């Protein structure tokens, strides 16, 4: 035994909840506020998981400088939260999530989140679904370096007494897999999110799950005990 706690560290957007429609709508509003055409939906999905500023920078059209990022980000946040207040920011849970969390906890895993969302946005999402308190560590890109840097994973481990050999990162994007590997943790991809399984495997996923029912056993198999 390692003596360290075992940690299942989840991404949020595209892994816990399907937030693509809310994100795409807010991004379109952010670009419109700067007089810019909205980016293509697929381009936005490819940026999900990165911190907001980095995602916007990657979506800027040719000829638009990085000085536009701050204004787009401000309008994005305002649009997202205004939409949520109106009940329009629908972020449904993926099927089987709660049962998978129950199974992981029953097997002795601690639960955490590392996400490109802001802390405020993450808390609102968890409250919406009655998940407040299920996750012992909440790591967000406004409080640490965003993915694919290892910082959020390392901070999560430190908070709950885990180490890389006892931590599995579960996510739907290449950025999640890269963060996990940079932190020395195991990487488990999920196929229901925003990056293709082959991209997850190329970025370092040990395997890719196609249903939440597969996740608890896959996580346990990846952790050294």
Automatic annotation (TrEMBL):
Molecular function in Gene Ontology: phosphoglycolate phosphatase activity
Alphabetical list of Gene3D superfamilies matching this protein: HAD superfamily/HAD-like, Putative phosphatase, domain 2
GO biological process entries: DNA repair
InterPro entries linked: HAD-like_hydrolase_sf, HAD-like_sf, HAD-SF_hydro_IA, HAD_2, HAD_sf, PGP-like_dom2
A Pfam cross-reference name: HAD_2
SUPFAM superfamilies (UniProt xref): HAD-like (SSF56784)
GO CC annotation: cytosol
The protein's name in its UniProt record: Phosphoglycolate phosphatase
